[in-house]
Amino acid sequence: MEQHFDLTVIWAGIIGFGLMMYVLMDGFDLGQGILFPFAPNEAARDTMMNSVAPVWDGNETWLVLGGAGLLAAFPLVYSVFLPALYIGVFLMLAGLIFRGVAFEFRFKAKSSKHLWSWSFAVGSTVAAFAQGAVVGAYIQGFETEGFVYSGGALDWLSPFTMITGLGLVAGYALLGSTWLIMKTEGELQDWAYKITPKLLAGLLTVFTIVCIYTPFVDETVKSRWFENISIIWILPALSLYCAYIVLRSVKKRQDGMPFVATMGIFLFSYLGLLASKWPYIVPPNFTIWDAASSHNSQLFLLLGFLFVIPIVLAYTSWTYWVFRGKVKAGGYH
Amino acid sequence: MELDPLILSRIQFAFVVCFHAIFPVFTIGLASTIAGFETLHFKTGNPIWQKLSKFWIQVFAVVFGIGVVSGIVMSFQFGTNWSNFSYATANFLGPVLSYEVITAFFLEAAFLGVLLFGRDKVPQGVHLFAAIMVATGTFISSFWILSANSLMQTPQGLELIDGMYYVRSWSEALFTPSFAYRFAHMALASFLTAALVVAGVSAWFILQKRELEANRKALSVALWFLLVLAPAQTVIGDFHGLNTLEHQPMKVAAMEGNWETSTGVPLLLFAIPDKESQTNHFEVKIPKLASYVLTHDWDGEVPGLNEVPIEEQPPVFIVFWSFRIMVGLGLLMIAFAVWGLILRPKGRYYKSPVFLNGLRLMSVTPFIAVLAGWVVTETGRAPWLIYGQMTHAQGLTPSLTGGMALFTLIGYIIVYALVFSAGVYYLLQVFKGGLETANAPHEMEEIERPKRPFSAAHAAIDGEE
Q1: Please, are residues A218 and A284 in contact by the beta-carbon 8 Å criterion?
Q2: Over the stretch B405-422, which tens digit does the pLDDT of each residue have?
């Protein structure tokens, strides 16, 4: 199997990149939904929705790509995670549907507008919580027999995964509030400045719990972090430094830096998590090589990815460029 | 009673896929229709074509939006309920679905924005190009997904090693023997759907005496298309049937309600197939016609269901009747196409209220026919998930319990019922607004140009904009 090594690692990189893209991009627009009920007023809510309306569905396409890409490159992940997370996946999809149609219907509705506001808020929060619980479930590991999930329907829902669920809700809300700092002005921006430190505190609490908890449930993680003092300690350190930057830039009332630094927190925490678990992709039993699809299939798809993904990225950047600048307050229609 | 996760998962998959399928089948045809209107406008400069295009783009935006939302669900269904199937076929299915995302979904998303909101922002030629790209994207998408389905119907090019399929030849696996027929049959079905919906809606507008000139033109074009497409679909369908007879004889046996392999088999117009007693009740038949249709010989031999044990027979009643619904509606479409031709002289086709009202009703028939056709081909494959190789039961997620499956089935039914009623309500608003609203001057601010479905349509959902 030695000659297959490289391709599987490349695919781990591609899938890792795709998931990070999804988390960062859909994170700030799910964040709008999470913050929705707490917004200062109805005009602010309209602006919040407008700020992400042009880009949210492109963001969610990365989730579909993640699902299909996992099936293609690491089918074992697909066929263990989805059955194990059966109920959670349903809740996430239902959440995404309700928030997706809310985008479209809320601005068209008059008397039923508040219903679509709730649909947007609840859908976004449920989807974010379910995704956070997935991260927790990944850290916990999955009970398997042979190559098949053998645990129960609600194994994924433990006190620990509920904490990671809430953690991602706080994290997405933080991405959402720093996005608002960047994209809005006036009253709404003031409000976003005000809530950002609180959301950061929430996120850091969960961050600490995960850091303390994880080495205790997983021997590999423990030995990796504590037995060989290694370079990976730089990752949580960078996360915390980014958190400090968020605070400092909020205090200085800079408007772009908080969002960039929040993305930094996500990126380094994510890399830290991967560094803990590498190369286990279905913990505790399977590595990326156990989970990989055939060399032939990985190669067949890689050729397409190398050609098409740069075009997709170019287009995506272009959309963001088209909708650059501050979103003005005011109605939609 | 013990809840059976297999039955519930099959019902759930049938439900979510049927719900999803009615949207793309319409958008594939409609995207080409819009590209056609835009081309005509570009070539002739006649503003009527632009008027029509603007209206149908609004319809497209709503339908495409629901298709996207329900499509996200599909990409996770394979893993949640059919994990053994997903795992076994991942070496083929994974790349195929991924290619669909990167070559079709992103292409559609990119150019849909330009099509919906870019009319005033880009030159007319670029806008036309966007329309053509969206149409191309829908076809690329159906290429991949029908290739995946055809492999499940007529598998080849794969090798099974230790419970996992490996692709021996990509060209064989992508282009299985039934693929070309399935693709042609589906593409024609999409065009037929668009033609009949455009005809029906135009007829409705004409009956209301709205925008007569443009709607008459649209009706005329739609009827010409119908005249070519409806008979062509019968021919393609016949070829597809012969291909099925060769590769999946039990499906054809169920379609014909033929229990015993024999010669000179009659065509059944009506029957109540009874799997338990392995016979039909209340048969109404035309002697020898089934043999002739299937073998082009009045005394040809047609395979019967008794060639396989009962547990390997598909649910005959469902397949038998779905097939008759599909064919019956197809014949009705031909009748309307011919009727339209007879009414053609002196423009009587847009003057006859009976004909116009008939067309209005006909606009729902392609959706029923397409779903019936999919029920024939999917149910007719039972008990096989991959024909002759893997059964539904083998493909099911092992850890799935009946309770879990029931929970999500009810959940999806509730979610889709809500989304569907809101979507239909909104679509009706677009129809009520008609070409007039679609072409009304509309001031758009910068923030009002979101590049995504639904928002192209300006009607207020509560009808009080």
Answers
A1: yes
A2: 999 999 999 999 998 888
CA distance A281 to chain B (A): 15
B99-141 tens-digit pLDDT: 999 988 888 877 787 787 777 777 888 889 888 988 999 999 9
Q: Give the domain A7-320 fold.
A: Formate dehydrogenase/DMSO reductase fold (1.20.1630)
Q: Is A105 on the interface with B (CB under 8 A)?
A: yes
B259-275 average pLDDT score: 93
Convert the pLDDT of each residue in B133-172 to its tens digit: 889 999 999 999 999 999 999 999 999 998 899 999 999 9
Distances (CA, A) of A287 to A77, A232, A235, A280, B221: 10, 20, 22, 4, 59
Domains of chain B: which residue ranges? 5-233+344-448
Q: Token match 């116009």: residue?
A: B356
Provide the shortest C-alpha distance from residue A50 to chain B (in Å). Answer: 7
Cβ contacts of A319 on chain B, cutoff 8 Å: 113, 451
Nearest CB partner across the interface for B400, out of A73, A83, A93:
A83
